[in-house]
Amino acid sequence: MAAQSDPIFDDHTPPGMAGADEARVRAGFWRKLSAAATHVPFAEDATAAYYCALDTHTPMRVRALLFGALAYFLLPSDAVPDFLPLLGFGDDAAVIATALNLLASHITPAHRGAAREAMERLRQP
Q: Which residues contact 48 (CB under 8 A, 6 or more apart)?
């Protein structure tokens, strides 16, 4: 089988590809998640994806895809605006679920454990 030449499959980040998404995610993830945690059924999965994306042992191509999916979650106005009841996070859930399904083997029990702990801290008064 021939090697993939598409940059998304390389373990090197193409200039500017993931950098902007990573910066956006690092700057806004916790703010958005804490505001939406009770409304977002996939909050723990998104948090596990966040920890996986930050993990330097995760391959760069996986990190880039996760940062892209998480950046979409942070966008205030995307395909379906988040303020719409019941539908607002549907497109975000689809993007996160697709990324998690494609990259599930890279999300470790440590990432999931850290996500559970973070969600417990968010839910405390």
A: 100, 107, 111, 112, 114, 115
